[in-house]
Amino acid sequence: MITVNKIDVLAIGAHPDDIEAGAGGLVAKFVQQGLSVGLLDLTAGEMSTNGTPEERQKEAQGAAQVLGVTWRKCLGLPDREITLIKKNVKALVEVIRQSRPRLILCPYWEDRHPDHVNAARLTIEAHFDAGLKKVCDHLLPHRASHLWHYFLSRATEPQFVVDVSHCYEIKRAAIMAHKTQFGQGRDIQKTFLNAGPGSFLSIIESRDCYYGSLMGCQYGEGFITAIPLAIQDPTSLLGVKG
Ligand SMILES: [Zn+2]
Hints:
alpha/beta, 7-stranded mixed β-sheet, 14% strand, globular, binds zinc ion, LmbE family protein, LmbE-like_dom_sf, deacetylase activity
């Protein structure tokens, strides 16, 4: 069992660069607003074309520093084997119960990469089980009030968009901290992530730009949630004080 501290927001990714790509702007914004954020990579990304697990771990910690989060941990599931077995759900339940977040972020449930799909499914299961008293009863139950899904290589119409324009340089720097994945160099092979006009990097930035345009700002990150957002103060949406 890995040990983590209590935080406000728990962001979960299948691989060490997922959170930065899908929700790096929101994470940076939360940190700037004084919330504590923990990042959990389900795997060390050891199956990636470029970079060793050691290099990737170093890069992940570098990106965590750029974002200013409280902690970043790896759950240690095998890359390409994020299966929905009890052992994996329990390991994630233990992290959720220790960290006791108000919000959990995880990938959207449709994606070209099956690990992202499975990371979403595993998180949905663990988010639910974490609130069940009789599931691994050595830790107190906890169910986060919010579970928001961020987009990676596939997206749908977002339910809401967060203006991340003023944090966008931080998001870019956090992504580029993963040099073996997004950098260029003689030792780095060209992949879907780092090369070409249809590369993952260009998908992320053009999508953030498009979502930003929907709300009249430069960059926006889109999210969806199966739990309806409760608006306590409708005037806050109108930019006036309630
Ligand atoms: Zn990934």
